[in-house]
Specification:
Blueprint: H1 7-30, H2 38-49, E1 70-76, H3 81-93, E2 100-107, H4 113-122, E3 130-134, H5 140-148, E4 155-160, H6 170-179, E5 196-200, E6 205-209
Parallel strand pairs: 1-2, 1-4, 2-3
Antiparallel strand pairs: 5-6
Helix pairs in contact: 2-3
Length: about 210
């Protein structure tokens, strides 16, 4: 049996195909691009520390299963720029890029312009991921809270520049939040910025509800 298509039918299907292709292209271009800097960060971490810290966390990283993006706020003060290199590289090296929304370095007001330039140069290879913001206070906790309100992730993690995280550290933290739905993680709403403290040693995560800021 011969099937004969009219010109109008051919034109219709051709236009339909173009529309579908256009929609796919627009969809792909609108999706946030995942920047995977883990290998680079691991190399930098090993260069700066000379040793890879062992991890007590589960061998399998399940952090993406919770469907939450994470903003990490790293606070640093004047004279601590050398320490923060390992902190930031460890976060990038050991966090799945599909959930790592951003790293915000909260710098206190006493950090000089020269030191800010050094920080920007240090993390210039991560410019799409790492933001360096200077606060108006020399109080670490105040700067962290101010920068926290600028974060765009579903969950905000506050960390000091003296901490180096290890492999698969994130999943236990997100797991505790998942198990405590009463925690208000909407940091855009009043009282949603700091809803709980997690005392964490990977294998054991203590949930400590606190007064929100």
């Amino acid at each position: 049996m011969n099937i004969v298509m009219r010109r109008s039918d051919i034109r219709f299907y051709a236009i339909l195909a173009l529309v579908v292709i256009t929609i796919v292209i627009i969809y792909k271009s609108s999706r946030p691009r995942v920047h995977d800097f883990r290998e680079k960060a691991r190399a930098q971490l090993q260069l700066s520390s000379g040793v890879v810290q062992p991890s007590n966390c589960p061998a399998e990283d399940k952090s993406t299963e919770y469907g939450k993006s994470v903003s990490v706020i790293v606070s640093t003060q004047a004279g601590e720029e050398a320490v923060i290199t390992q902190t930031v590289n460890s976060i990038i090296a050991h966090t799945d890029p599909k959930i790592l929304q951003e790293i915000i370095i909260a710098v206190d007001a006493k950090v000089s312009e020269d030191h800010l330039v050094l920080l920007q140069k240090e993390f210039s290879g991560y410019e799409v991921l790492v933001k360096i913001l200077q606060g108006h206070s020399d109080m670490r906790i105040k700067n962290k809270l101010v920068m926290g309100h600028m974060a765009t992730g579903d969950v905000i993690m506050f960390i000091d520049d003296s901490v180096v995280v290890t492999a698969n550290y994130m999943a236990p933290l997100l797991g505790v939040l998942h198990d405590h739905p009463e925690v208000n993680t909407d940091h855009q709403s009043p009282g949603g910025l700091l809803s709980c403290l997690l005392k964490w040693n990977c294998g054991l995560v203590d949930y400590l509800p606190v007064t929100s800021y």
